[in-house]
Design brief:
about 200 residues, Arc Repressor Mutant, subunit A, Tetracycline Repressor, domain 2, elongated, 2 domains, mainly alpha
Length: about 200
């Protein structure tokens, strides 16, 4: 039997909110559908009306989280896409800011940290590749490697990097960018130099 189309709101949103909180705190294996159902205050059947399994609700929670990151990255690419170094620096700063937002209020289970970092590396690789295509710059390493380096900051930050550690890590990241990103002059700079 086909599932009915479900609009967001009400109980479905509450199931997602509670599930996110529980998954982030206890990890995927530490949460059961019954735990979610009890916390929401609904019957198990209502859970299954909205979601076919714990896997599905977990996937929706991570996709919602991923969506927040994608929106932020798209804005960075739009605003800084012509300047690879500035763009990568902004991506790193964005990872730090978003990670700090997640860790400020929530205790993240190590399995969730791993899932989030894996997804963030994949997303970062997409946006770094897009930025490189837009500018025509080639790296001295693969886009995936640079994404792991940039997104790797997420793991460190989630595990408790403080502001002083971030500044130190940020300085190291700047030196690393010097090593992997060839000298690059934006087209706008080249045009302005030619006009002089």
């Amino acid at each position: 039997m086909a599932r009915k189309a479900v609009t967001s709101g009400g109980t479905r949103d509450e199931i997602l909110r509670v599930s996110k909180q529980m998954f982030f705190e206890k990890g995927f294996d530490g949460v059961t559908i019954r735990n979610i159902q009890r916390e929401v205050g609904c019957e198990v059947g209502l859970f299954y009306y909205y979601f076919s399994s714990k896997d599905e609700v977990f996937d929706v929670v991570l996709k919602d989280t991923e969506s927040e990151w994608r929106d932020a990255f798209e804005k960075i690419i739009e605003e800084n896409g012509e300047e690879p170094r500035a763009c990568i620096r902004k991506l790193f700063e964005c990872f730090f800011r978003l990670s700090a937002e997640y860790t400020a209020d929530e205790i993240l289970h190590c399995s969730i940290i791993s899932d989030i970092c894996d997804r963030m590396e994949s997303i970062a690789a997409e946006y770094i590749e897009e930025m490189l295509k837009k500018t025509g710059v080639s790296l001295r390493i693969s886009e995936k490697s640079l994404a792991v380096i940039v997104a790797g900051g997420v793991g460190k930050l989630i595990f408790g990097c403080n502001d002083r550690d971030f500044r130190s890590f940020s300085d190291e990241a700047e030196r690393l960018l010097d090593a992997v990103l060839p000298e690059y002059r934006s087209r706008s700079r080249e045009i302005s130099v030619e006009l002089l």
